[in-house]
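> tool_call: predict_assembly(chains=two)
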Amino acid sequence: MARVVLSQADINRALTRISHEILEWNRGAGDLVILGVPTRGVFLAQRIAAIIQRIEPGAPASLVGALDATMYRDDLGRNVTRTPQPTQIPAGGVDGKTVVLVDDVLYSGRTIRAALDALSDIGRPRVVRLAVLVDRGHRELPIRADFVGKNLPTSTDERINVRLSEVDEVEEVSIESRTMPEQPTAQPTEQPTEPGNGSDEPDGGTR
Amino acid sequence: MRHLLSTKTLSQGEALQILDVAEDMAAVSTREVKKLPALRGKTVVNLFFEDSTRTRISFEAAAKRLSADVINFSAKGSSVSKGESLKDTAQTLAAMGADGVVIRHHASGAPHVLAESNWIDAPIVNAGDGTHEHPTQALLDAFTIRRRLFGDRSRGRDLDGVSVVIVGDVMHSRVARSNLWLLQTLGAHVTFVAPATLVPFGAETDWPVGISYDFDQTIRDTRPDVVMMLRIQSERMNAAFFPNAREYSREWGLDDARLASLRPDTIVMHPGPMNRGLEISAGAADSAQSTVLEQVTNGVSIRMAVLYLLMSGDREVQP
């Protein structure tokens, strides 16, 4: 059974806030490159880039791309063969740029570890930051997100489903318990305590 | 996919998966760091019982770009010349810990024997067996056609409705066979043009292919998207399949006049090595329509895709 934790409007608000936070932190859109991690991170990156281009007049026309990390994963030998997704780097490359990686859910941190390795084979950015729509905790590596849409404390046997209108019929983030729901597991973040703004700190206690 | 032995048994989904992964591999080959860590710690053995330079080098480059270790084994100067059997060679490689075997053999079916036996547990890639198949060549040819036709929008596309004419020694050509099966699976229409003596027995009735003995008329009738020239193997020259090289060249060679009669956007392909002046003129080989060098470049991407898809992943959980 799945429980919706972010509606379409919530997702839009989170992405708008993240876009503003990126611009505030970077002091504009100069040298900015937004790279989504396939599959859904790519769409989120495109949305963030579109918002940045709308609210920041001087934003470069090509600032969004995709960074596939499949070949760099540390679990290739443990699963069925994964099909890689396209990597697409904006025309200016990443050398000396400010790269913001975008993914839908931050969990173990292993995908981002792989993405960092993939990125370093493409070039040498000046600085790399991480934006995620949902941080669900349970990190297995020393990796932390800089921009977070929502912190969702979860149990490891729960599942976070991010559905986006680009690929799915609905748009929402839901939480699904794989075991029987004998006890209502994590409910604290369900009620929107402080809607929107920076209250969801990047390191909001899930590490 | 457990092994890649032939294109005849490849489904359209599997073929497109290889072609699409090769797109990603091609992108890697344009980067400054042309290497992926996907097969780190794995060993690929190139087992070549028949002479080949470009295919072996292509597989070697592909394996190295995926960070695999490569062991090259050629029959010349090995225990095979002392009479070692395929079984003993395979078991030796297994004992050395080969994670993947690329095999070229003069006997049709040798890769199949290796894959069906329990001599070695590694994925087997057929790099050309006798007159049977050469699947990676067909895949790289299809990849080259798709890229020329669709450019950056190639991903996920098949070759529906594309007309391909394959000219030359079809009878002895594993390239022609592999291409026929794969192109057919991808929706293309294939026509073989050859001297009647070099058309395989039964091809007219049993294979999904048009057959013609007249190159000029085929060009006029089909207005092909692709013309693929096959190499005339000099060892067949005195076997009386055709009177002499000059006559072959005049009837079935792609000379400058025939090149001019093609549509200006017709792709000219050749698997190499070329006999310039025999099956293809220097003018045709070096024209802008020629994809000979692209085929070599794409060969590395295709072989990377094949090695990645066969060798990464846990075989225990493989469906």
